[in-house]
Amino acid sequence: MAGRGEGPDFVEALARGLDVITAFGGDRPTMSLSDVAQATGLARPTARRLLLTLEELGFVRSREGVFALTPRVLALGTAYVASLGLWDVARPRLESLVARTGESSSMAQLDGSDIVYVARVAVPKIIALRVEVGTRFPAPPTSQGKVLLAALRPERLAEVLALPSRSGITPHVVRPVEELEDELERVRARGWALADEELAPGVRSVAVPVRDGSGEVRAAMNVTVHAAETSTERLTGEFLPLLRQTAADVSEDWAIWQRRPHVEVARRPAS
Prior knowledge:
Layout: H1 12-23, E1 30-32, H2 33-40, H3 44-57, E2 60-63, E3 66-69, H4 79-84, H5 86-101, E4 104-111, E5 114-121, E6 136-138, H6 143-150, H7 154-161, H8 177-190, E7 193-196, E8 203-211, E9 217-226, H9 232-259
Antiparallel strand pairs: 1-3, 2-3, 4-5, 4-9, 5-6, 7-8, 8-9
Helix pairs in contact: 1-2, 2-3, 5-9, 6-8
């Protein structure tokens, strides 16, 4: 893929890095070093240096020799969300939920020990923290983060909790690991999580999982309210049932989207 530049200002190293990112896709969500080298036409040492650089920058993660993109790629555009189909299927459902609750709703995925927002429909209310697609927060003090952490295997959870946050945010409340693990057990049992002014004062939210076609938890969806305006009882009693139904609908829509044919049929020439 590299070697296309002809202008005097063309930066080959940047082009190769983008080649590595764009080599991943719906048909190749994970790749080994050899796969990346073959897909990009790069030498293995070059591909390795680029992958390790992207990993250090947070755009790629690796596990047992297999590489994958992270949600941080959203900072470069919307290609990550589009490849998953999340925004396509979630937007009308999120918009309907927001219309019924009058509160903002978002979807996030786990990236290291942080959550990254991949979809959002907001209402014009003053909240302590600004949130938009691509925003990163520490996972433990957020309702979406708790849902995503609760879905991890115990050994993976320990690895994730040991990672430092790259969000630059200091939570309003920091819980001991043992206390957090006890709460995650409750989240697993009941299927939803609450964050009550833990990330920042005045921010209260409830979240539920969003699953892919295989039933795996791949994202979390929440409703966020201002604590001074909406009580915990109303949030969990009135908004949570609507949120759970919306997440179930998005999961079903996403499963259908994932099963759709991906083959483009060439147009037949006119007779």
